[in-house]
Amino acid sequence: MSLAAARPSPVPPSNFVTSAKIVIAGGFGVGKTTLVGSISEITPLTTEALMTAASIGVDDAEAVPDKTTTTVAMDFGRLTLDRGLILYLFGTPGQTRFWFMWDEVCRGAIGAVVLVDTRRLADCFSALDYFEERRMPYIVAINNFDASERYPELEVRQALAIGAGVPIVACDARSRPSTQHVLITLVEYVLAMRRGGPR
Fold this sequence. Notes:
It is a single chain. The chain has a 6-stranded mixed beta sheet with strand order 4-5-1-6-7-8, with helices on both faces. Strands 2-3 form a two-stranded antiparallel ribbon. The chain is 27% helix and 23% strand. It is α/β, with parallel strands linked by helices. β6 (111-116), α4 and β7 form a beta-alpha-beta unit. It has one domain: Rossmann fold (3-Layer(aba) Sandwich).
């Protein structure tokens, strides 16, 4: 028997793990930090800073009057979706003065969640434009704040002027199961697009 014949056949590892980077984007105070914190299996890294008088007239906090902190760089969390897939979550800052960091935060991401507050739809237009221009897959997640009105999906889609193939899901950014559903929807959408499905 030759040495080549004696060598055992390579066995693919049963613990092979794939990781993927996902961006959580949206306007100021829409719930990005809350979403990452609700689902991360590690203590999330946040760059929250206290809002001061310097933000008056710069950050529109009228719809979120109880907000006392804001993200000044990014949020980071991790979720093991199943035994073979780990998601790394990167939350972007919502204010326009921090948008210069978006290219670095989004580099290498497979897709994005654009978090939306229906009371302030215009705040998410810049994020939608950003991902459309870069042809990065994204879904829209409507964060149902207690005080926000619920609208039919078609009405939201028309107001945001997004294509029929882009998924829209309602969520509660404070709820782990709800957030998990959002992330699974994005992963499934990205996989479908990579298989050549319609957008």
